[in-house]
Amino acid sequence: MEKKVPYSEFGYKVFYKIRPALKKLLKINVVGLENIPLTGGCILAANHRSHLDPPVLNIISPRPIIFLAKKELFEVPILGWIIKKAGAIPVKRDNRDLSTIKKAISLLKEGYVIGIFPEGTRARPGEFRKPQPGVGYLIEKAKVPVIPILVEGTDKILPVKSKFPKLFKYNIDVIIGKPINFEGISSYEHVAEKVMHEIKKLKEVKRDG
């Protein structure tokens, strides 16, 4: 019996056909795409400033990304339907939602890509929030490559509380780092902090570029 994928295959086929147009429309620049593994389970960990972040990451990723998303988003008309079709996993407010973590780990073992936002919610423009310790718990248990990603510009195109994107005015920069080494880190909190530290460091890559 053929294994059923956790997202709409038809939806992703359509999405992949229009990705080049979406990338041009949103003026997305990408650095470090080669750092995303083409096979095997891995976690993509990015900063979060806009509801535009998940689709932008799926636009540039060579593989479908299954995001962990706040449970409340699944109740939003249209958006809730879209993220369900994309295979998103609902996350409760509890940092250590064990059922969510078990599902994410199971998908990682099956070779899928899981996308997370360590801050847990959107940060203010140009800022970073403190990472959630539950992120460290997931990473520690999953034991797969974790790829740090910096996304900048999405908060200008679709700011918090904005209903419509401000297209054509701004660029979006996506900087993808190399897998993080967690050797010697002793606690979930420190693992989460390490992830955010590596994401912030990618600002230097952008500046040098």
Plain-language structure description:
The chain is an alpha/beta fold and 209 residues long. The protein has one domain (9-208). Helix content is 38%, strand content 16%. The chain contains seven helices and seven strands; from the N terminus they run αββαβαβαβαβαβα. It has helices spanning 9-25, 53-60, 79-85, 98-109, 133-142, 154-157, 188-208; strands spanning 28-31, 42-46, 65-70, 89-91, 113-116, 146-152, 172-176. The chain has a seven-stranded mixed β-sheet with strand order 1-7-6-2-5-3-4, sandwiched between helices. Helix 3 (79-85) links the parallel strand 3 and strand 4 (89-91). Helix 4 (98-109) runs parallel beside helix 5. It is globular, with a radius of gyration of 16 Å. The mean pLDDT is 91.
Could you give the topology of this structure?
Layout: H1 9-25, E1 28-31, E2 42-46, H2 53-60, E3 65-70, H3 79-85, E4 89-91, H4 98-109, E5 113-116, H5 133-142, E6 146-152, H6 154-157, E7 172-176, H7 188-208
Parallel strand pairs: 1-7, 2-5, 2-6, 3-4, 3-5
Antiparallel strand pairs: 6-7
Helix pairs in contact: 4-5, 5-7
